[in-house]
Predict the 3D structure of the following.
Amino acid sequence: MVGCGNISAAYLETFPRLDAVALTAVADLDMDRARAVAEDFPGVRALTVDELLSDDAVDLVLNLTIPAAHAEVALKAIAAGKHVYGEKPLAAGTAEGQSMLDAAQAAGVILGSAPDTVLGTGTQTARKAIDDGLIGKPISATATMVTPGHERWHPNPDFYYVPGGGPLLDMGPYYVSALVTLLGPVTSVVGASSSTRSTRIIGSGPRTGEEIPVSTPTHVTGVLIHASGALSTLVMSFDAVATRAANIEIHGETGSLAVPDPNRFDGEVQVRRLDGEDWEVLPVSAGYRDAARGIGLQDLARTPEGELPRASGEMGFHVLEVMEAVLASAEAGTALPIGSTCERPPAVALSLTGGVEAVSGS
Ligand SMILES: NC(=O)c1ccc[n+]([C@@H]2O[C@H](COP(=O)([O-])OP(=O)(O)OC[C@H]3O[C@@H](n4cnc5c(N)ncnc54)[C@H](O)[C@@H]3O)[C@@H](O)[C@H]2O)c1
């Protein structure tokens, strides 16, 4: 594991439940952070990044660095012959993302990318409902994420307010990955964006009260035109207080679906049928149960040779290109085509474990 910051805690909690991967070594630019993790996990060594990448006991690198470092760390890992699974977004930009895909293919290693939340029961139950024809032909979707900003809780929120961050690149991966999982790949986009404040104030940790600069749009809206013809409307904001909109809604010819938070693995899917009187809760019917951050890593480790993992670099790249194009479209004031595509990854059958057992039998 390279990068022992905020999100590493979630993975560290999942590791003991993963039977296809074992944590052997950790690294961070800040060696104290790596040492602190190693102390808590007997048998796990704290190494420098270079030591970790040249270690024979490491065959898969979990890249939990900040977005600006994703490509650099992944490319070094790939050059060392390691498979790589990284946090989202795949990279800070598509040029870097493409170099990761190319390098992985040339080296014959697997590249995976978060988010893996879409493999949980929430998004997968919604997907099954669509695939089973419950709402007829999907026509459109809305995806809404609004928050006043991560600087309120994250002790080092700088990366959220520079290019590569912002609400779209930070939270968009969950929403766009869910939309691609549900409705398939995107062929063109239209975007618009704004920025309300040029600085933000850190709200927690040792740097509380410190002002940090903003150099990326903090409110982004876009329309994604899917290859299927479905149209998704996206609203991603660090400038708003709250919303009562469903995280994601999918509208089909004969029904509408309310899809739970794609930043979570579970949650209730509801359907409103054309001839129905009210919204109905759908029983959980697909996805990894009791999943948590790391299930994508497990899925990758279990991928049969020659196949792509579900949370693949290819999907991460397509999602990144869509998001980058929404931002570019907002600047250009015109619709933009999407050059890449990806397969909808294979659906996840309802499975109790997928190798991930609930910690306390819940
Ligand atoms: N914080 C969250 O809630 C959250 C949730 C989901 C996903 N993510 C994603 O996880 C990633 C990390 O986020 P975070 O919140 O943990 O950030 P963080 O800043 O808390 O931690 C990042 C860690 O990576 C280390 N690092 C940076 N560059 C490095 C390099 N070149 N080599 C080795 N170590 C390096 C830093 O020293 C730091 O310890 C981001 O891509 C983010 O989008 C974060």
Remarks:
- The CA atoms of residues 97 and 194 lie 25 Å apart.
